[in-house]
Amino acid sequence: MNFVLVGGGPTGVELAGALAELAYVTLRDDFRNIDTSHATVTLLELGYRVLPPYPRTLSKKGQRALDKLGVTILTGAGVTHVGANSISYRKNDNDHLIPTHTLLWAVECRPLPWV
Hints:
By secondary structure, the chain is of the alpha/beta class. The protein contains 2 helices and 7 strands, in the order E-H-E-H-E-E-E-E-E.
């Protein structure tokens, strides 16, 4: 059970924390027939820190909170492909693949300059 979130802004960070609590606490305690021992929550961020538009002190607090919840944070990771059962990303000139059935897209959206 791999949960993957793309985007380390406020929405992605909040969703990652909520999913970690769900996967690591709620499902384990309330749905004992679901094996959560192999559950993972991964946050992919293209920039080099979570919460990039905010001061570094807030970014560090957000990262520490997610670390405490067991979220794997991959910064400098650009998504290259989304498949039916996986997501691929590039980090440090290396390609990686994460198998997942649950992908949440929480990246910044901007209108095209001509709109």
